[in-house]
Amino acid sequence: MARGARGARGGRAAGPRPRVQLAALVVAGVFLLIGVLGFIPGITTDYGELRFAGHHSDARLLGLFQVSILHNAVHLLFGLAGLVLARSVAGARVFLAAGGAVYLALWLYGLGIEAVNPEGGANILPVNDADNWLHLALGFGMLALGLLLSNQAGTGGRLDDPANRH
Fold it and tell me: What is the pTM of this model?
């Protein structure tokens, strides 16, 4: 197929997807999987203790990460948003970079909740130490993917360099 040729439906150019889009699809798929697994007894321990929201939910995904119905729903919605945004390079960048920033904010939220009052009303998304470390890793990982994988995507294969302008 000639360079620049369109796919069968006239959409994006045929050929492999840019890496930033593939990364966004994988991350979105993982969030969907985690959201679904949070509702499966056995994979989520103490499933009978699953609550809608708050720190009173004692259910733990993989016996480690504290979850609630709201927490699982947020994972599902985040994954669906990622699938939609990954359809374009710009959307994939936004999903990964902004999503990484959101997860870094969730890490700070979790640290703040645990430092101030883990039993307080502000703890609507149950978090524990395992969640906090995961949010930190997700935040940096998504941010890195969104910023580092997108340098050449959509630029024709080379970065703009003022020295090369005529």
Answer: 0.78
